[in-house]
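Inputs:
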Amino acid sequence: MSEAAVRISGMNKFYGRFQVLRDINLEVASGERIVICGPSGSGKSTLIRCINRLEEHQQGRIDVLGTELNDDISNIDHIRRDVGMVFQHFNLFPHLTVLENCTLAPTLARKVPVDEAEATAMTYLERVRIPEQALKFPGQLSGGQQQRVAIARALCMKPKILLFDEPTSALDPEMIKEVLDVMVELAHDGMTMLCVTHEMGFARQVADRVIFMDKGEIVEEGRPGELFDNPRNERTRTFLSQVLSH
Amino acid sequence: MATASRTDKSFQPGKSAAHPMVLAAWLRRRYFRTPLNSAISLLGMAFLLFLAYHALQWAVVQAVWISPDGTSAVCRGISGACWAVIQQRWRIIIFGLFPYDEQWRSMFACLVMVATIILSCVPFFWKPLRLSLLWSGGFLLFYALMRGGVFGMPLVQPADWGGLTLTVFLYAAGVLIGMPMAIAMALARRSEMPLVSKMTGGLIDGVRSLPLITILFTAALIFPFVLPGWLQGDKIWRVIIGFALFFAAYQAEIIRSGLQSIPVGQEEAAKALGLTYWQRTSRIMLPQAFRNALPPTINQLVITFKETSLIVIIGFFEILASGNAAYGTGEWSFAYFEVYIFVALVYFAFVFSLSRYGAYLERRMRFGQH
């Protein structure tokens, strides 16, 4: 077994006195695909945001790609370059073109020459099937197109881990598939992925492991087949019946 | 951006009204719908024509433009404007007390400064290197021309600079020094270090609580007593620093409002890509902050241009004070109205261009918003 991409042990996180995450222990192997689900407010987004330190944890230890996350800023910037993130609301830079969105970080943070960064960006834009939009601004694209650009932007940094924070939740139904298709392809290419999502079909199709969270705790985890078809915990059962009933 | 803005021409009332038939219909609909409506419209038009007629009579038809003998005798007993005062005294208005034989230098210096300002409004120069080269070149040339003492040009001390040239220089230097100060203050006030943000907040609020006149007064007259000699510099530079500080205190808050209106996701996305604080700030945050805060920024630039007139209080003859001097001789003292109209037109030309430029920037930047 290869070295763990992410190792979280005994991690607690508080907002003031309110505890958002409770005794989290999680190990993600390199190349593993993990789906995190759970009711709203269960701390799933907070958990993956701790992995690239958009949120700080107060207790316990987080190691990402062999480096411990602490207050060392240069360490954090270094880790973040290797950990891509895709957000619910895309968060593309509206004042830059699609191509500039994709080349900005490689040229600045990785010091890749501009023409090389542009070539890489076009490769990934082709992979997410929107190379023809490269010179447009994000505001001119549909939600689904913007999210695919956001995925390409993350890929341009050649990350070792990709975090997805509810990537399809802000999309109109007809655009969800185009984004999920791209994510499935990535999964098949062996990218290490942690996805917070309610797309159970996606979880069944690609996840090696599904983690169910509730009230800041990891309640249950297992292969998607086991967890969805034979949930052991009562809370998991309630949640799944609500999500799958319609 | 350029390709996109071409498609953005959906609504243009001016174009459709240009056709005579359309114009007639539009006039009828807007101004002559009912008899009362027509009566009010006609009355209003008659009044406007009356005003325009008298203004034209005074300013053009009855006006005297030239004084052949250099005295004000030609304006005696006329009922129109005495523009001869401008013809005779324009050098004082534009150049102030600058030595007469050297005034060509002041003219070129003024043109250099205006050209530098105009060039830095062109997108081609919007690169840090080009912009700094342009401004260093512009200031160096301006300073060499105005101060002299090089290439055989006699030395002219800044105390003798004046008129429009001084106004433009003070403005350009004040904004150019004030803008980086404003950016630094806006960023410092948002700092996560409480001491830094509190102190910057105190500085901004402190400066804003003082009238500009007191700041200029302090810079010009009090600092010489307080500061060691080597730190004093010329009076003009102390005034420019004071002026810049005042501008920066207001502009810092404008930039901060622009920063605060950026969705949090923007900075998070930049962080998640591994960009450092300075990379995030310079490439993601500040460009969007300036775009968000463009209207109040133009507003502040306009106000600042007009505030340059306050430096007369510490003995600099900028354009308004030079105007006062222009009619201040017994010879022309009756013609103050004409002089003020002339000065007002100069202010208008600058400020109106600035406003139109702001409108152009807004159109240009409309794209790319979500």
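The first strand of chain B starts at residue 317 and ends at 318. Flag for discussion at group meeting.
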